[in-house]
User: What shape does this take?
Amino acid sequence: MSAKTFLNAEDRKILKNGYTREHPIFVVGLGICSALAVSNTVENAIAMGAGVTFVLLATAVIISSLRSLIPQRARIITYMITIASFVIIVQKFLDAFTPAISKALGAYVALIITNCIIMGRAEAFYVTRTVRHSVIDAVGNGIGYSFTLIAIAAVREILGFGTLLGMKVTPANWENWVVMSMAPGAFFLLGVAIWISRAITERSSGEEEGD
Amino acid sequence: MIDRIKMIAFVLVLGAVLTTALVSVDAFTAPYIRANQKKKLQESILKAAEIEFEPATLEQAFSEQIKAIDYPDALQPLGAADDNKKRFYLTQAAEVIFEYRGSGLQDEIYGVISFEPDLETIKGITIVSQNETPGLGGRIEEAEFLARFKQKKVFPRFRIRPPGKASGDNEIDGLTGATLSCNALEALLNKEIQKYIPAIKESLR
Assistant: This one.
C-alpha cells in the first residue's frame, strides 16, 4: 500500500508500462543487442542492468528538466552528449571499483551509448514530460530491462556453466550446455521469452484496449 | 538569428557543464584505476614466474619475492621521473621477468614473460590484455596454449609453427583459426626479446 501514498494512479501506470505494455525488449524491441551479449552470467547482467538504469535515470532528469530550453533542432545532439557523458562516468566507476566486471563486460559498457532504449525514451517521453513522470518512466524501463537480462542470464548461467552467481548449483555429473554460454543460446532463449510474453499480453490485451 | 545564437549557446553551456562533470569523475577515479592496473601487473608477474600467492596477500608476496630493477638509461623514455622508470623484475631464484607489448592482428597485445636465469629459456608467459577476434585469435590467451611456451628457447629466434609442425626446442604449435594472431604474437615477442634481453644482461652484469 505504501506505493500508493507516493505514486498516484498515473504515476503507477507509467511505472507499470515500463515493464509490461511498453517493455523495452519484449514489446518495443530495443536494446536486444546488449541483452544477447551480456546475459551469459548473472553477475554481468546485474552490472549491465544497473548501468543502463543509472544512465536512463540521469538522462531522464537532465532531458526532462531542460525540456523547455532544448532547441528543437539540437535535440538529438543534446541526448547524445548527455547519454555519452553518463556512460563514461559508469565506465570509470566500473574500472575503478569492479575491474573484474569491467573486463567481463568489455566494450558493452561503452555501447550503452548506442542502447536505443535510452535514446528512444528520451525522444518519446522525457523531452515532453515532467521530471517526476520521466523519472518514474526511467525506473519502470530500468526494471523491465534489468529483470529480463537477469532472468535470461540465470537460465544461461545454470545451463551453460552449471553455476548461479559463481556458485555451483548443478549435480556433480552435470554436462554444461556450451551453446547456452554462447550467443546462439541467447537467441533461442530470448525468442522463447518474447513468444511467451506476447502470448500473455495478447490474451490480456482485450481488457486494456482503448486506454 | 536569435534562435541560432540560443541554440549554440545552449549546446556550448551543456557541453561545458558535462565536460566539467567528466573531468571531476576522472580525477576522482584515476588513483583507483591506477591501483587496479598495478595490482593486475603484480598478479601477472607472479603468475609468469609461477609463484603461488593468495589474492589477499598479493602486495606482500610481491614485495617479498620480486625485485624491480631499472632498465639502462638508453631504454628509458626521455625525462622519466624516478618512480616512472621502465623496469624489469627479478625473482629470488634469479629468474627474469619483463613486460612485452606490441601490435597483434586487431589491437595491442600486452603481457608479461619470465625467463630462466640463463636468459634463453622461457619459464612462463601471461597475456594481460588483448583484443583479438573472440573464439579465433582471442584463443591465444587460453592457459593450454600459453603452457606450450614453457622451457622453449628464444635464440636465435622463437617460432610459432602451424599446428603439428613444431619440432625444434625453439618452436611451438600454433592454433588452428588463429594463424594471423599467432604470427603477430611471434613477431612482437621476438622484437621485444631482441630489445630487452641484451639490455637486461647489461644491467645485471
Notes: The radius of gyration of chain A is 18 Å. Chain A touches chain B at residues 66, 69-71, 73-74, 77-78, 81-82, 85, 88-89, 92-93, 95-97, 99 (CB under 8 Å). Chain A has a mean pLDDT of 84. Residues 2-156 of chain A form one domain.
